[in-house]
Automatic annotation (TrEMBL):
Residues 42-131 are annotated as: Disordered. It comes from the Eukaryota. It comes from Hirsutella minnesotensis 3608. Gene3D superfamilies: 3.40.50.1100. PANTHER family: CYSTATHIONINE BETA-SYNTHASE. This is Tryptophan synthase beta chain-like PALP domain-containing protein. Residues 104-131 have a biased composition (Basic residues). Residues 154-331 form the Tryptophan synthase beta chain-like PALP domain.
Length: 366
């Protein structure tokens, strides 16, 4: 009798918490004057399936100006399917409990997630949407080297081993991640641009997106398509790529989450030699682009997506007119609104001056 009642109580509490977060997001957007834009914005998908599957095909959007880029840019959005309750996330087809690591997944399995605790509660949202139970191990925020047994990734593995019928997705070094983008995202970009893509760029966390898409586009174009790694402060990958693998320097830190890396992951290792160059993107540029995309494009982006847009703009400037550059939008501002649009937070991070004066009207939180 107790267990069903407890589960109902937990479900009701979770639903109330989710509604509270939604109400907060809407309140922020209404204060900014963009609430309508969240559902009826200027984004227009050029190509999307009539009945998309639960995982896989993602819509493409064409940005005429890409917030200042000299040429049109395309972006891919992995979370757009209004009202359908579907998650468009290619990795889920290969890594999640439903498609799961090709052979490791079991019906009703739990996915164990581990994250360094930074005061946020969004871990495992894709798994929840897919119908999986996702127990999350909340770990200290202090960064430890990947080889340290106390590193959060190793703690997540040990946590999964203690659970019955659980899968540790090992997202950084599970090469099903890379394969997912090699088999889905890359072909989608090639098909939807009709092969007229000249460059791809994005930041990396696991590096599955960059590696898989780069490999496919290089093969499909016989080496014509360029690939550029975008890197935030605090990551070693820009120094590694720009020095030809000689340097691994980590300097500074970044407001972005989920991107940047202190090592070459197993997902990236097979294709790192295909990357044509790298770009170091400062937090100042990323935060400015958050506000520019909101104002000029009607895109409500998080800092990691904004960093990708900055990178796409810089690649477009590097290549010159009549080139098509593709990037991905990997997060939304709704997850970070209480920080990105907070005057105090921006001041504390010394980023307030990075927001153009005419766009500071969107800073609606104290």
């Amino acid at each position: 009798m107790f267990r069903p009642s407890a589960r109902r109580l937990l479900a009701t509490t979770a639903k109330a918490a989710a509604q509270a977060r939604l109400n907060h997001t809407l309140a922020v957007s209404e204060a900014q004057g963009i609430a309508k834009g969240l559902t009826e914005g200027k984004c227009s998908a050029l190509s999307r399936p009539q009945q998309p599957p639960s995982f896989g095909l993602t819509p493409r959007s064409h940005r005429k100006h890409a917030a200042g880029a000299p040429e049109p840019a395309l972006r891919r959005d992995g979370l757009r399917d209004p009202g359908q309750g579907r998650v468009h996330e290619p990795r889920g087809l290969h890594q999640g409990p439903r498609g799961a690591v090709r052979g490791q997944g079991r019906r009703g399995a739990r996915a164990a997630a581990g994250r360094r605790h930074r005061g946020r509660g969004h871990g495992g949202q894709h798994g929840h949407r897919a119908g999986a139970r996702v127990p999350v191990a909340r770990l200290p925020a202090r960064h430890l080297h990947a080889h340290n047994p106390a590193n959060y990734n190793h703690q997540a593995r040990r946590h999964a081993e203690r659970l019955d019928n659980a899968v540790w997705t090992n997202q950084f070094d599970n090469t099903a991640n890379r394969r997912a983008h090699l088999e889905t995202t890359g072909p989608e970009i090639w098909a939807q641009t009709r092969g007229r893509v000249d460059a791809f760029t994005c930041a990396t966390g696991t590096a599955g997106t960059l590696a898989g898409v780069t490999r496919f586009l290089k093969d499909a174009s016989r080496g014509r398509v360029k690939s550029f790694l975008a890197d935030p402060p605090g990551s070693v990958l820009h120094s590694y790529v720009s020095s030809g693998g000689k340097l691994v320097e980590r300097t500074g830190s970044s407001i972005t989450e989920g991107i940047g890396q202190g090592r070459i992951t197993d997902n990236l290792a097979p294709d790192i030699g295909l990357v044509d160059g790298s770009l170091h993107i400062s937090d100042d540029k990323s935060i400015a682009m958050v506000y520019r995309c909101l104002d000029e494009e009607g895109l409500y982006l998080g800092a990691s997506s904004a960093l990708n847009v900055v990178a796409a703009k810089e690649v477009a400037e590097k290549l010159g007119p009549k080139h098509t550059v593709v990037t991905v939008l990997c997060d939304g501002a709704y997850r970070y609104a209480e920080r990105l649009f907070s005057r105090k937070w921006l001041s504390d991070k010394k980023l307030l001056d990075a927001v153009p004066q005419h766009l500071q009207k969107y800073i609606v939180l104290p």
